[in-house]
Amino acid sequence: MIGFLLRALPIAAGIAAGILIGLAIKPSPAVVEPPRAGYADAVAQAAPAVVNIYTTRVVTRRVHPLCDLPRFQEMCERFPGSQQRMQGSLGSGVIVRPDGHILTNNHVIADADEILVAFADGREAPASVVGTDPETDLAVLRVDLEGLTPIELAPSLDLRVGDVVLAIGNPFGIGQTVSSGIVSALGRHGIVANAPYEDFIQTDAAINPGNSGGALVDASGRLVGVNSMIFSRSGGSHGIGFAIPAALALDVLDSILEQGRVIRGWLGVEVRPVEDWGDGNGLFVSGVSPNGPADQAGLRAGDLITAINGAPVISPREVGQRIAMLSPGSQVEVQVLRNGGRQQLQATVGQRPVVERS
Fold first, then answer.
1. Does residue 215 belong to any structural domain of this protein?
2. What pTM was estimated for this model as a whole?
3. Of the residues 92, 184, 212, 228, which is catalytic?
């Protein structure tokens, strides 16, 4: 009996040790993949609301190129002849309302005879022009389709220089494309002639021909701007692109939908900045439109405007934007310095004439 116990003891000890080791060893946890770096979720959120826009227009020209030369025009007029051809163009747009309203650039659809919108889900539909605003280079289109999802909007005050942004559009007509970059600058202006309401977002995200009218979104896929133009010596992207802030674009959208067009206030006065004059800064009146609101109120070239409606003036651009926000027919108080004395002038705001961008 004792011999049996001695032989069984090592076996029992081995079994006990195995149980203890098994209890001590914890099962390996499931392998968890690290989160993916990138902006795929933002693209998935925004891309369905970005559309491709194709336009065509009929172009009529003389049969022979010599007819474009002045010395041959008289002869060509005796033997009239012309030919027509279809000219195509392309761009992008952003769905901003579920009822089919789309924002794009005015230059994308200007002079178009036909506008076709292609959606991310493969559908296509003709579009009609609801209204345009050449001064901000914006246009509103509408398509008669159901099941459209508008883009989500980002809070306008959240955007900062250095924030990541994505440009989504249809460059060169190759199809929807996403490029990434950062906000390079805010409040850019003086980029385009005859565009007094510029307030561009500058970005180094690649923007190329065909991206115009597409979406500039933040890292969450929310709209921060409408891509508009690039600065380039070659026609390709050099990392200097500009987008119209979403807040401005939506103000234009609301005005067009409510009034059919954008109506802005106007005084008819040209001003330029000056250094300290007397007891404060001001804007020097360099010209007054004949019979315009400023002229009728008594403003003269050489006056120094120091305040409008009690608020100090800062810059010609800022004053122009403030006046533009006023309704035609409203009263505005203009404080001026003239010949060393202060005067308060009352002006009736007029309606700003439309100025085409050059």
1. yes
2. 0.74
3. 212
